[in-house]
UniProtKB/TrEMBL annotation:
Protein's UniProt name: Histone deacetylase
InterPro entries: HDAC_classIV (IPR044150), HDACs (IPR000286), His_deacetylse_dom (IPR023801), His_deacetylse_dom_sf (IPR037138), Ureohydrolase_dom_sf (IPR023696)
BP-aspect Gene Ontology terms: epigenetic regulation of gene expression
Superkingdom of the source species: Bacteria
UniProt keyword Secreted present: no
UniProt keyword annotation of Hydrolase present: yes
Record keywords, A-Z: Hydrolase
Any single Pfam family the record assigns to this protein: Hist_deacetyl
Family of the protein in this entry: Belongs to the histone deacetylase family.
Length: 300
């Protein structure tokens, strides 16, 4: 099993955004300390190439990122001030997701400690996302003919608006998003299948909606690979999530997903997505539970 992790996942970010990003250091540290993974399973991805990025993003937008010429308005929409380090971080994350997807095709599952940058559109960034790593990886696999059909399974509390827009006219990538109806982004795009969730939804109701959706998706899409965005901002401790899913419920969600995919021998590439609980330990524990569930069910 391979896990993508790079120092750039944390260090380029502005100081006022560092707290929620500490998880990128703490997740692998906790998994190593608990003996869930070994150092040999961690790898540092290289940056994605321009050729690969341009399979998904427009040349004009990529030139702005590379040349540091985003306008102030474009930077505000992203939420970060531009910097070469931040652009480098995004292209490393993108390559990490490609690599774990390739690994999953051969070995069943792979994880990126970061990733799930689903608010990035082909021609602009939004919501702390500059480049869309799942879209880049899916287009890479399709372009190289490693797959014929992909499913993006987005269970972050925020709709995967950028992913939905990028693949709106691409039947080879089916987009599914189960997200807060009244949460960011306030203008929703149209995924192939959206399930909007009411504020305050509890664990039982959440899982009752997800459970029947999974076999329907598998039978409808018949994916060669699933890109699973396992955001933990569904937690009742999350500052912005507006849901009431318990930590145990979040783990049951992950187990439900992995059991459904493993039952059909479907490879899974996992990215962590969002998590904004007040206490960092709640975020890290929930993300680590995703790793534990996937490793246990896929047999590593």
């Amino acid at each position: 099993m391979k896990i993508a992790y790079h120092d750039s996942y944390t260090h380029p970010l502005p100081a006022d955004h560092r707290f929620p990003m500490l998880k990128y250091e703490l997740i692998p540290a906790q998994l190593l300390r608990e003996g869930v993974i070994t150092h040999e399973q961690l790898f540092e991805p290289q940056p994605a190439t321009e050729e690969v990025i341009l399979l998904t993003h427009t040349a004009n937008y990529w030139q702005k990122l590379e040349g540091q010429t985003l306008t102030p308005r474009e930077q505000r929409k992203i939420g970060f001030p531009q910097s070469p380090a931040l652009t480098y971080r995004e292209i490393v994350i993108a390559r990490g997701t490609i690599d774990i997807a390739l690994h999953a095709l051969d070995h069943g599952i792979g994880f990126n400690v970061a990733g799930g940058t689903h608010h990035a559109f082909a021609d602009h960034g939004e919501g702390f996302c500059l480049l869309n790593d799942f879209a880049i990886a899916a287009n890479y696999l399709l372009h190289r003919q490693h797959i014929k059909q992909a499913l993006v399974l987005d269970l972050d509390v925020h709709q995967g608006n950028g992913t939905a827009a990028i693949f709106a006219d691409t039947p080879q990538v089916y987009t599914f998003s189960m997200h807060g109806a009244h949460n960011y982004p306030f203008h929703k795009e149209t995924s192939d299948w959206d399930i909007p969730l009411a504020d305050g939804m509890d664990t039982a109701t959440y899982l009752q909606l997800l459970e029947p959706a999974l076999p329907r998706l598998i039978n409808r899409v018949k994916p060669d690979i699933v890109f699973y965005l396992s955001g933990v901002d569904i937690l009742d401790t999350d500052k912005f999530g507006k849901l009431k899913v318990t930590p145990q419920g979040c783990r049951e969600r992950d187990e439900m997903v992995f059991h459904a995919l493993k039952k059909h021998d479907i490879p899974c590439a996992v990215a962590m997505g969002g998590g904004y609980s007040t206490h960092i330990k709640d975020i890290v524990n929930a993300h680590c539970n995703t790793f534990k569930a996937g490793i246990s069910i896929y047999g590593y």
